[in-house]
Amino acid sequence: METSDVGKWLQRDVNCLADPQRSVRKRSLEKLSMVAELSAKFGQGHLVSFFQSHLFQPLVACFADPIEKNRELSIRTCTEYAKLGAIAGDGREKALVVAIHARIGKAPFPEGAEELRLQLLELLALVLHGAMPDDSIFTTAIGDVMETLAKTATDPFPDAKKACCDAILVLAAKWPAQVKMHLAALARPLTMNLGHQHARVRLCTLQALETLVPCGSTTLPELMKDVLLPNLSRVMFDRSAAVRKQLVQAMATWCLRIDELREFEAALLPLLFSGLADESEEVQRHSLLLVQQLSTLWASDPLNAESDVDDADMANVVTPPFTARPPLGARLVTRRLLAQLLPSLLDQCSDWTVQTREKATSILRIVLLLVEDAADAHVAAILSALAKTCRDDEPVVVASVQAAMAIVGQFANPDLIFSSLLPLAAGRLPGQDTSHHRTNGLVLLSMAIAGMAQPTILPHMERITEALADAGLREADAPELQEKLSLLTATIVATGAPLLVAHEAWAFRLFWVLSQMIASTPDDSIAFDTAIHGLVALATALELDVPGLYRRFLTPLVQTIGANDVVWSKASPHRVLFDSMARRGGKACGAALPVLLPVLLRHLDPAREADVRLAFLALLETMLGNPEMAPAFQPFASTVLVKAITPNIVWQGGKVAATIRKVAMACTYTLLRQGLATTPCLFEAAPVMLPVLKAALDDGDAKTRQLVCLALQFLFVALPQALGQEPVAQLYHDLLKRLDDSNDLVRKAACATFLEFLRAAPPSHFQGTIIDYSMDALFVHLDDNDSEIQAAVFAVLLETKRVDATRLRQKAAENRSRLRSPYYCDQLLQ
């Protein structure tokens, strides 16, 4: 069929496209839109020829039809003919671009229907696909294309945004020179879509930018700095792994066009390396592949002709995400740009947002991994930056810093690390002698050491142990600092274990630090538990058990902290340490008692502060009650009783003084109960003790009075028949007074004490007034309401029979009728 025949059938419909009646236009458009049927009927060639000669202009004019359905039909029909290649030639592409620009190339869009805007963009993409790059006529319309795409990039319809990106891909590939002139106008609105809520839109935008930016522009530096890089940096945190993967792909493409983007290398590499630090394994694998490909280019770049260390040891080190040593090109380019990369990364490490801090430290780890030992020149700056976030509130940031510091420890010069961190931890740097700075130093040191190999650490053990044992660090009371110090010390014990046997000074310092942590931290704290395990590890390293560890180091440590007859306050770290070791040392304390005792005596002097004496008396009572330590006190019992305990029983006013007397009496009672005082010892101590104990029988505290009675009881048992007449005469009355005590426990203790009192001297010393008065007092209490006290008094009366049996019978007979029950009197009369 000829073209003229097609005209006979369709010309009327073409004419109707200009009819004022919309229904007429609609019917004609519907008929003309059935391109497939018309092509089958008339033949594609004839139909295309008719379209080009008669239908094109009227159909394009319908793009502006006031009726939406008519516009839709005209756009759809034109799209179908474009697929048949009917648009090419004779300036039709340009005419179509102009028509499309008129509908969607302005803001606000003349075309109000979003679906039609999408169809127009799809039609534009078809035109771009079909147009020839060397078509001079069409080239003059590229400006309209650019403006159209720049406007539709801001279209609120997500599908229109994606169609816009598809068209840009074609445009940048075919007309890069023209794109270069309009890059800023196109890239600015497009970049705003990187924050769109639809992941697919963000993905398409990145794909468009990937091809667009390498076209270059005179405004590219400003555009990159003000628009592209700030927005691309946010894409690193995108919730979609596919978008993050495309970001890495785009950066790799830009790096391949390194000549055009040379000045932005340092800004692009962190974005590329973000894929290596990505949480998604797929993104990591893709990034590794891209870095491998780019490394070939980088290795051949003359600017990267820096020498690289070909170390066999380095080749054997495998650090994730790499499965072998990082490729040469990546190492070279990162080394060259390191000075430019670090300032921005280190600044972001302390950013106010958690995401930025975590991502920056993760990328920093990759950079440090690539530069290996080339980071030595920047170690101080790296440590200073990471010190700000090493104790971040967010665990994910701390973990990221820890991973970065492990790389620093793995590759950096250990002399530089220890020279920076050990003084910081010890508080020796100007203006940084605070627990905050010390803790930061400890945390960074722990993290760095975690990445070091054992042979790297061992040569520095002397300076490490010396710094850890620094008084300001060891005696700090900040809980977090104590926790980190315990952890680091335990780590050093485990690392340096092979050398500790041969270096006792190191072991001594570590023992000191761990013991101080045990002494100054709560039993349920992490620091305490870590220090306990560290002490066990230290003992194992020295081929000892924990008691053996105390036997080796307790004496020299006490001699060190107690040198020059120093007197401690209660809050003194040395007192706290001494107290802890004395309680935990077991048999080692017994062996070291000649060293411990002078410290005890010095601080139990009545001239010392009350709280100090109270603390040392409590410690002494614990030591005396410990079966492992107590036997060692026997040779020193007299000294302890006379110089340490008895002066603290002497009455002084006040509640604190009363507490001191009570604890001192507990010490006396424990010492005597343990049988530590031999007869010669008691003969030496009794003249000093008895007057003080006699006065203490009237103490205002019932517990103290009870302890005095119990102590006297043990004293009398230890000195049978040893008391002279004067002590008997002085004591009996005060002991009998305790039978009238307001506390029943004291009364019972007084009965038991008086019983032993009667046995502690010859009967002749009690004859006369003493025994007469005593019996009268005892018979009064034989009628007590408490049956237990009655039995206790009866036992004492039975003992008086040894002194004066006749008088006892006489008194029993006299009191038999006076008591409520004659039972005990009858027993005495038998």
Q: What would you report as the Rg, rounded to the nearest angstrom? A: 49 Å
Q: Which regions are unreliable across 5 or more consecutive residues at pLDDT < 50?
A: none
Beta-strand content estimate = under 5%
Q: How would a textbook summarize the main sheet?
A: none
CATH architecture of the domain at 550-714: Alpha Horseshoe
The number of helical elements comes to 44
Q: What's the pLDDT, averaged over the residues?
A: 88
* CATH homologous superfamily (4th level) name of the domain at 550-714: Leucine-rich Repeat Variant
* Helix proportion range: over 70%
CATH class of the domain at 550-714: Mainly Alpha
Straight-line N-to-C gap: 157 Å
**What structural category characterises the helix and strand content?**
mainly alpha
- Globally, the shape reads elongated
How many β strands by DSSP?
Answer: 0
